Amino acid sequence: MKFRSLIAGLVFFLPLCSRAADSNRTIQADLNQVKGPRSMIWQDSVGAGRVGEGLRANWRAQLELCHKELGFTYLRAHGLLHDELGVYSEDKQGNPRYNWQYIDDVYDYLVGIGMRPFVEVSFVPRALASGDRTIFWWNANVSAPKDYAKWDALITALVRHWTDRYGADEVKKWRFEIWNEPQLSIFFEPPPGQSPRDAYMELYEHTAKDIASVNPDYVIGGPAGPGWFRDLIDFSVDKKIPLDFISFHPYGLAGGPTGVDDTGERLLYLSPDMDAVANGANRGLETVKNSPKPNLPIYVTEWSSSYSSRDPIHDTYFEAPYILEQLRNTEQMGAMSYWTFTDVFEENGPGPRPFHGGFGLINYQGIRKPAYWAYWFLAQLGPTEIKSSDPQSYVAKDNKGGFQILFWDLTDPIHGRVPGPVSNQAFFTKPLIPRDKGNATVKLSNVPAGSYKLTVYRIGYRHNDPYSRFLEMGRPTDLSREDVAMLNGLSSGKPESVSEVTVKSGFTTTLPLPENTVYLLTLSRLSAHKHSGSAAAGAK
Q1: Which of 67, 348, 474, 513 has the smallest C-beta neighbourhood within 10 Å, fewest atoms?
Q2: How confident is the model at residue 227 (pLDDT cuts 50, 70, 90)?
Q3: What architecture is the 2-36+386-530 domain classified under in CATH?
Q4: What CATH number was assigned to the domain covering residues 40-383?
Q5: Residues 257-316: pLDDT tens digits?
Q6: Is 319 annotated in the active site?
Q7: What is the 3-state secondary structure (H, E, C) of 372-402?
Q8: Has 202 been annotated as catalytic?
Q9: Which residue is catalytic, options 53, 177, 189, 302?
Q10: Where are the beta strands (DSSP E) in 401-496?
């Protein structure tokens, strides 16, 4: 407690006037050097806390915004079979009773806005559970089923209901993931006398067969900790059970507790490896490659810098370049589903303040965090990628003669900077003022001659960064409507600058680059009658 109090009093101030040792950067690209279609795995899917939260109006409004502006297709959430949805009960004689109304409410909404369920088959209704182990504020029962005949009937009936309601052609496009993190004891309690691994294989076999019995073309897979990858693959082959993908969850922490922050009270520590998530995800590729199913896709169905919904790192501008770095280096995955799109999320109960370290891209009041803008920047890139000299960048072109350049700095803000170890909860609840890292110069060659509108967007300290202002306000537990409007105004996505440039053959511009800053530059072709003919600095 003494150590914790001392750390809590530190202010982490990294002066802007102090220049880091890094040399200036150049992002160089020849627009005739096409790399190919841009990877869109980041857009495939996104996470949410639990299905029951999808009954709320603010959850839906935020999801619709993310779908519209960021392009997420699949939505994955816990608690499909939780008792709050009334899915399963039994009469006095023990006969099952099914109720699909609340699930239909959420899934009708998803399908209606053009999204699809990434169905996580979890957890067990209390009347079917073999034990009383629960997790989270909302008491998810993580015990194995006590009666597989009744479990099989429930899953089969539910999948048949979806097939009748939405049609087999639609449900064939869904994905069925059986359970969540069963390798962790907090998420899966086997029946007495059975090992967790054997119990999960039994659960997987029953559930996969139940789903496939309705339609063998449905897409089915399982969450396996990295140590269970090969076991599940071999088991599916030996038993001739469907296994269409493997899924698991890498996070960016190290040097502290592992698993889950189920109470929201653990001190957690950022890994000094700035590619920790990407490296964790990619380690599974070799295991799958050397298995009997070498082409099996890996879907990362959860990932973030931290596995706690009370970790302030999620609210900071640091999260934006961290996201881009991981996505840039995981393009061999089948999907990278960020956890989560919203702070309407209650694993540890309702959030105690507007910015409380929630997983979401958007906070409870609808204020978009820097993480949101990282995804928004990605969504502005054209579909064709151009080769770039800089690994922390994208250069792309669209189908209207426009070009986009996205680049970032990712610098470890903790290790080697302050006395340690320092927890995220101590470090990221103080101002994070970046050091100057010099300049970044963008050089494009073979740009088609003509006039362009140059728009520059930025994420960084006090740029689409409402959290820094929230810290200056003293981290209040409540915000007035005027405060919410003010913070929204500080995170509006408005460009830094808009100008017109006339290009003859190439384009060059130089921008200041403080630590952990992200830039997006767009060059949009202007028609002859839409420009004044003036030339801007940097065009040639």
Answers
A1: 474
A2: confident
A3: Sandwich (2.60)
A4: 3.20.20.80
A5: 666 776 778 899 999 999 999 999 999 999 999 999 999 999 999 999 999 999 999 999
A6: no
A7: HHHHHHHHCCCCEEECCCCCCEEEEECCCCC
A8: no
A9: 302
A10: 403-408, 436-445, 450-459
